[in-house]
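FIELD: query
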Amino acid sequence: LDFGRYLPSRGPKGWQLWAGAALTITYGFYQVGRTNKDAVQQKMQERKVRYALVPLLQAEADREYMERELVALMKERE
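FIELD: result
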């Protein structure tokens, strides 16, 4: 008797497993690359905002420094 023909199929073939794994890995690398690009873009936008704010922050720091210097000069005069 041929019992093999009565048994169900044992699952996907070897090439199908390899193809599925290759597709899954390729998709994963694609997602990682896209996420990295988005992160770089986000960092660049944050950097541009920071660069735009630096002159304002520096001007404020300079003004505070001048006020402290003026107070120190007034104390020296007394």
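FIELD: remark
The mean pLDDT is 93.
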